[in-house]
Amino acid sequence: MSILHRAHFTISAAQIDQLPPPGPPEVCFVGRSNAGKSSAINVLANQRKLAFSSKTPGRTRLINMFGIPDPLSPGDFLGHLVDLPGYGYAAVARHERQDWAEILGDYLATRPSIAGIVLLVDIRRGVTELDMRLAQWIAPTGKPVLALLTKADKLPYGKRIKAVADVRRQLQEIGALHALPFSSTDRIGLPEATEYIENWISPKVVP
């Protein structure tokens, strides 16, 4: 069983200073509001309702942390999965979008326990202007990035491969970037994504 399957909700925070002190490795999930972020977290954790998945994009307005318990040290965590506010949904008031952007940017810039960043990109849309803004925030952190090209089941294999190459080219400023097609529905890319995230949290095999 993947260590990610043990994840459970620990805290929601509206501001950075409401988070627990930095500690175990954190893997944060960022992306446009309709890129399938919550669905990706749920399938990686093998839980249907761990992260809130709404039919109305832009509903994730808090930083949500999901702890992965340490089986060898009860009460402690191996690490956390962190669901950051969905970015850029147009139907939300402009001042609210700005607030979310500041929270997201502050977290990426100041949180020392970030071990890796999962960037969700809708494979059908490719890299948008908003994705490029996210990339500009991510690049200075120097953290490794896994780009999941979500909804890959909507494209044939050949187009998926081309989309991956395009994303790598467009986001090359990030540096340590790995990209792969991903589908929460058909579980495309799930084993490889799981392995990447597990290695960020705990390089050793955990019983």
Automatic annotation (TrEMBL):
PROSITE patterns: G_ENGB. GO terms for biological process: division septum assembly. One of its GO terms (molecular function) is metal ion binding. Keywords: Cell cycle, Cell division, GTP-binding, Magnesium, Metal-binding, Nucleotide-binding, Septation. Necessary for normal cell division and for the maintenance of normal septation. Belongs to the TRAFAC class TrmE-Era-EngA-EngB-Septin-like GTPase superfamily. EngB GTPase family. This is Probable GTP-binding protein EngB. It comes from Alcaligenes pakistanensis. The lineage of its organism: Bacteria, Pseudomonadati, Pseudomonadota, Betaproteobacteria, Burkholderiales.
